[in-house]
Amino acid sequence: MSVLEPFGARLRRAMDRRGPLCVGIDPHASLLAEWGLNDDVAGLERFSRTVVEALADRVAVLKPQSAFFERFGSRGLAVLETAVAEARAAGALVVMDAKRGDIGSTMAAYAESFLHKDAPLFSDALTVSPYLGYGSLSPAVTLARESGAGLFVLALTSNPEGGEVQHAVRSDGRNIGATMLAHLSVENAGEEPMGSFGAVVGATLGDLSTYDLDINGPLLAPGIGAQGATPADLPRVFGAAVRNVVPNVSRGVLRHGPDADTLRDAAERVAEEIRHVVAPS
Ligand SMILES: O=C(O)c1cc(=O)[nH]c(=O)n1[C@@H]1O[C@H](COP(=O)(O)O)[C@@H](O)[C@H]1O
């Protein structure tokens, strides 16, 4: 198995060169319709190819949402494989948004599916759910380290329902979201320029100054655009940690398709707004 440079280092460089924006590839049925495409495999293929061709040579990260591909079965997964390979070939890092999480022995198989360098769906990083216990993710942590990939662990999610789990307080007084951030700090300790084990922290959450967001790793921040957050919210939500934030926008960019130039302009506008609020490194 060939080994890549660690994800954290590759991501830092991409963010410095291209800006930190992550655009989601979320082929909602409603977006396929807006783009004048059928809700079928051909529509899915056209949609994802258009996004990759328009953006993979300029944004730091593309984040395909696997559910929208899985919906079409094996042919949808074939489209996803192509999108991942072509996005990576054009220079974007790919975060596979599959939100996997299972008991350790099964987690190992999920890790093999997305983080083994020779897997058809190998991605630079994978979103994972720690809600079977952070330790259940350890096979994914181990394989990510071996292959130079990364993880984004759901810590404080952008959806309003997340609080019932993530804000629950443990017997030691720390809440669950903060506990996940603390686990990630340990994973990333001593890594330069930053570690490969990121947290998902919603841009919609308001002031997070009670949390220690300084995990020496990336913070994937969804919620900008369709969920109501704006780039201007980022410094208020993330404070000094804004430097490590990878803001994700999916529908807020995708609704500007299907024209590739219009899509590029939309992504560039958001990227510019983000550049204004995030201090250059
Ligand atoms: O892990 C994620 O990517 C994620 C975590 C989270 O807390 N909230 C969240 O919205 N996401 C994903 O980020 C994307 C947000 O899409 P838009 O609301 O269209 O920008 C979707 O693919 C969500 O599944």
From TrEMBL:
The active site is at 99 (proton donor). The keyword Secreted does not apply. Its EC number is 4.1.1.23. It catalyses: orotidine 5'-phosphate + H(+) = UMP + CO2. Pathway: Pyrimidine metabolism; UMP biosynthesis via de novo pathway; UMP from orotate: step 2/2. InterPro entries: Aldolase_TIM (IPR013785), OMPdecase_AS (IPR018089), OMPdecase_type-2 (IPR011995), OMPdeCOase_dom (IPR001754), RibuloseP-bd_barrel (IPR011060). It comes from the Bacteria. Residues 20-266 form the Orotidine 5'-phosphate decarboxylase domain. Keywords: Decarboxylase, Lyase, Pyrimidine biosynthesis. It holds the Pfam family OMPdecase. HAMAP family: OMPdecase_type2. Belongs to the OMP decarboxylase family. Type 2 subfamily. This is Orotidine 5'-phosphate decarboxylase. The lineage of its organism: Bacteria, Bacillati, Actinomycetota, Actinomycetes, Kitasatosporales.
